[in-house]
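note to self — DONT lose this again. spent like an hour looking for the file last time. sequence + predicted structure for the chain T wanted, 328 res
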Amino acid sequence: MEPQKAGAAGVPALAITELRKQYDTGVQALKGISLQVDPGDFFALLGPNGAGKSTLIGIVSSLVNKTAGEVEVFGVNLSRDRDSAMRLLGLVPQEINFNFFEKPFDILVNYAGFYGIPRREAVQRAEEELKRAQLWDKAQMMSRTLSGGMKRRLMIARAMMTRPRLLILDEPTAGVDIEIRRGMWKTLKEINAAGTTIILTTHYLEEAENLCRNLAIIDKGRIVEQGPMRTLLAKLDVEGFLFDIDGELPAQLPVIEGTRLVAADSHTLDLDMPRAMDLNSVFARLNEAGIRVRSMRTKSNRLEELFVRMTGDGAQATAVDTTPETAA
C-alpha cells in the first residue's frame, strides 16, 4: 500500500505506532508508544528525566534506531523514505551544536546548502530568519560572542532555514532568563501561527501551559496521559497561592484542614487548597493566628500537579522545574 502524500487531507503531522526501543544493555526506553500530532498543533511532550523523551525524539529525527514500531511524518514513513521524511522536519536539539567560530549568517546559509537550497535563496532566508530571531544586528559577529539566549534563538533560526512543516524543540529555553524566554515564546507562537506544527519538550511547565494546545505525558517508556491541555488541567481540583505577609511568620503555622500550608520563606506562605474551598475561611484562620496577608498571587503549578499525579511518583517532581534559570 502506498503511503499517503504529505499534505493530503486527514494526514497527521506525526503518527507514531507501537514504537519500542530496547538498548543493547537491555534497558527498554520505549515500551509501545503510540501518539498522533495534528497539522498546525503546538504539542507538548512532558516527562521526568529518563522517561524516554530524548529517545523518542531521537527516533523521530532519525538519530536513534528503533527496535519496533512505525513513524510517519505527514504520511511519509520514516523507515521506507527517510530522506523525504527528514525534509519535512526541523530539529532544535537541547545541546548547542553549531560552530562558535562561525558567524550567524554563515551558519544559516551553510546549513541551507546541506539541504540543496540554492545560495541566493539561502541568503534571502538567512536574512528573514535572523530578523525574526532579532539577531540581524549580530549576523556578522562570531557566534561565540552571543549570549545564551541569542544562541538558543540562532538554533531555532537555523532549523527554520529548510522551512520544515514539523518543528521539534527539545528544551529550547533551557538556561535563559524569564524575559528572554518570553521573547522566544512570542517567536514560537508566530512560527506556529504561520502554519508550522511544533512539538515541544520542556521542564518549564508554565511554558507548556502557555504555548501548547495538546500534550502527552511520558513516564518509564509509556504514555500515561494525553489529550487537550484544557481537558487535562480541568481534572485538577487543587489550586495554589503565594501570600506575601506583613512582618515575619510565626514559628508555628496554623493548621487549616484540607490544605497544605508551608512557609516559602520568612515572609511568604505557600498554600495548596481544593478549588471548592472558600478562600475567605483561609484568611480568617490566618488572621486568628496573627498573620496579615499583604498581597497574594496564583501559582503556575496546575500542570505540575497533573504531572505528579499522572506519573504517580511525587519524588519525580524534583525533575520538573518552574523556576527560571539565569542565562550565562
